[in-house]
Prior knowledge:
The complex is a heterodimer.
Chain A: E1 2-3, E2 5-6, E3 9-10, E4 13-19, E5 22-27, E6 33-35, E7 41-43, E8 57-60, H1 61-67, E9 72-74, H2 84-94, E10 117-123, E11 126-131, H3 132-138, E12 140-145, E13 148-155, E14 160-165, E15 167-168, E16 171-172, E17 175-177, E18 185-187, E19 193-194, E20 200-202, E21 211-213, E22 216-219, H4 220-226, E23 231-232
Parallel strand pairs in A: 11-23
Antiparallel strand pairs in A: 2-3, 4-5, 5-6, 6-7, 10-11, 10-22, 12-13, 13-14, 14-21, 15-16, 17-18, 18-19, 19-20
Chain B: H1 4-20, E1 40-42, E2 54-60, E3 63-68, H2 69-75, E4 77-82, E5 85-90
Antiparallel strand pairs in B: 2-3, 4-5
Helix pairs in contact in B: 1-2
Amino acid sequence: MLRAEARGQPLEFDTVGLVGGNEVFKDRQTGTRWQQSSLQGIDGPLKGEHLQLFPFLLTNWAEWRRLHPDTLVLKPLPGYAERIPTMNAIIRQGLSGKGEAPDGVLRHDDRLPAKQMVVGLDFRGVSKAFPLSVLRQARVINDKFGIEPVAIIHQPDSDTTTAFVARAKGRNLRFRETDDQVKELIDQETSSRWNPFGLCVSGKLRGSQLELLILEPEYWFAWSEFHPDTEVYQAVPAK
Amino acid sequence: MRRVGNLICVLVGLCTLAVAGQEKSSPKDLPYVTVDHPEFITAEQASFLADPDRLIGVMDGKTAKAYPAAILAQHGCVQDRLKAGPIAVTW
């Protein structure tokens, strides 16, 4: 999910192929080619520029409709609706973590299986990958990027991951879930209660909204290919 | 996730070839191209969606918009224009 602009100029993109195992877009306005995983212009007039992410949530229909009963839904173009059930089955299969990297991947990083799904986060000069398999177990991760406290929250029933700067009113916060499905969290510092979208719903910090961080869900082979310095979050046994 | 789009296209292409001989209607070759002018329907009209189906959701001001993964994966990119500016929804 990208802001479709660079240097203040709106851009429109077409998919033009792959570099390594990752898609490349070409914009119609300048002819620059952009690498999806690194968000970087790789050749053309805007080479070296970076596209910006736009905030989004990767989730499932049940969770999104619960959050937004009046949501609009993209209408399939004529002919494309027929393939939706097949596509959904393939997409679910993709969450399993099984399978090989595609041919042409530029570098292999064997710290994780190639098709393990990860959510990647670039923040404060640190790149880190959180494997989906670890998120499903840990559910709430109190982490640091440099000196910044970061909370990663995973709701297992819908495989929905959110991330925030874990600081409100100048206080660094650590969170734990109050229920298995992580519908509510409590911070250790003030015992205030929070929803998994960073909003404080009761207690001393009620009404505070944590700063949202934008996660990038990808296969490990694609994330590691274009984030060679990435760290991999390792589960810590005791919370 | 992002690479999955191409893989899916290949797989669906193969599946389509495999079943083409058995289908009465001639299968259309649906191009893997950007959607430039997205249209939207209500949640009630989106009968093709089931609870576990993946999607990308965004907020356009106070309006929620859902881009089902099963559509995105057939196009690679959907261009849309939000109050906050132009976006490219990719898969």
